[in-house]
Design a protein that fits this description.
The complex is a heterodimer. By secondary structure, chain A is mainly alpha-helical. By secondary structure, chain B is mainly α. Chain B contains 8 helices and no strands. The longest helix of chain B is centred in the first third of the chain and has 36 residues. The chains are: A mainly alpha, B mainly alpha. The interface between A and B is large, with 100 and 96 residues.
Chain lengths: 185, 173
């Protein structure tokens, strides 16, 4: 904000700047108001899906992949269950549910890591997957697009899925390659 | 290709309700519970959004954002990144609310269906607040040495940014 004020003084845009302070704050509130309805609708629907058992179903579907990604943890261990739940929740866009599962997963993994201060390979892999964000339906994004008059707020979905899958794959491959390089030293 | 996106939402809602009925989930109660969580989550980001959206609109109005964009334009032009996207690409791994503020600004100025708007959407939807995520998860268990996490995660982000530009230019042109 300081930079903006100094810059406005230099470029002689003080009037625009003071207007922007007033409008900026109210814009934020109107952004929240216009998105909150759809956000609640979506998290409500997702809760039904979750209760309906979709999370545990998807977890079963993912277990072979997880075996490869987290070799240190057997498939029925508490750690890999929490990992499953976290990945599924992320996939469904249940961000709030995903974080507690994620922290549980990290704690379970830390138990087998002799509580050291250094992350093991599975922990790194888990965090890398979480930073790559693969989402089936990005609710918030679609609401924001619609607010600004997008004709088809969801037309970005196929491109977004492709992008997210490729970026996630690169992250996983990078983590696998780097972990071997780490092991050498 | 674009139709898939339009059908996705009604299809998903349909499937969720069928699943709920089939499994005898108390539909409305569960819905209320979930919606309440969504309400709390949205409200919890409100204060930081007010601060950051004001800051972004000030940066924009003062001309500072344009000066910054012009400064890095020659570098990003080599990488094929549209200069309007660069602030978002830089802020995305660092701040979630901050990148929402920038995305809001991009949609307002260029429209969500413009090339820039679409690239920004995909970039936003396919990447995460990398540094925040790393801090939360490793912080929770007291890990100090994250080893190869940051290089791997940033490489994935970089690919995400590049791919969002490529997919928009090839699939949605």
């Amino acid at each position: 904000m300081l930079i903006s004020i100094i810059c406005a003084a230099v470029t002689g845009r003080m009037e625009e700047l003071s207007n922007s302070v007033l409008s900026g704050a109210s814009e934020a509130v109107s952004l929240i108001i216009s998105t909150i309805g759809m956000m609640c609708l979506w998290t409500g629907l997702m809760k039904i899906a979750d209760k309906g058992g979709i999370t545990s179903f998807l977890s079963k579907l993912f277990s072979p992949i997880l075996k490869f990604l987290f070799p240190e943890y057997p498939i029925n261990s508490p750690a890999s269950k929490a990992i499953c739940m976290n990945i599924t929740a992320n996939l469904l866009g249940l961000g709030n549910a995903a974080t507690p599962f994620g922290i549980t997963a990290m704690k379970e993994m830390q138990k087998l890591n002799n509580n050291s201060h250094t992350a093991n390979n599975s922990m790194v892999m888990f965090v890398v997957i979480n930073t790559a964000s693969l989402q089936v339906i990005p609710a918030f994004l679609a609401i924001l697009r619609q607010k600004y008059g997008s004709i088809a707020p969801f037309d970005i979905l196929p491109s977004m899925w492709i992008t997210a899958i490729i970026s996630l794959t690169v992250g996983i491959i990078a983590a696998k390659i780097f972990e071997r390089m780490c092991d050498k030293y | 290709m674009n139709n898939i996106g339009t059908y996705a939402i009604p299809f998903v809602i349909f499937m969720i309700i069928i699943l709920g009925l089939f499994r005898e989930v108390p539909l409305f109660d569960t819905f209320i519970k979930g919606a309440h969580e969504g309400l709390q989550a949205t409200l919890s980001i409100t204060p930081s959004l007010i601060g950051l959206i004001t800051a972004v609109s000030m940066l924009k109005a003062s001309g500072a954002l344009d000066i910054f964009t012009n400064m890095i334009a020659p570098i990003v032009a080599h990488l094929g990144i549209p200069p309007e996207i660069t602030p978002l690409a830089i802020l995305r791994p660092i701040s979630g609310s901050g990148s929402i503020a920038l995305l809001d600004n991009i949609f307002k100025n260029y429209g969500p269906d413009s090339t820039v708007g679409r690239i920004a959407s995909i970039m936003m939807g396919s990447t995460e607040t990398t540094f925040y995520t790393i801090a939360v998860y490793f912080g929770a268990v007291g890990i100090k040495n994250s080893r190869h996490t940051i290089p791997s995660a940033l490489l994935a982000d970089l690919v995400g940014i590049t791919m969002s530009i490529i997919t928009v230019k090839t699939l949605m042109a």
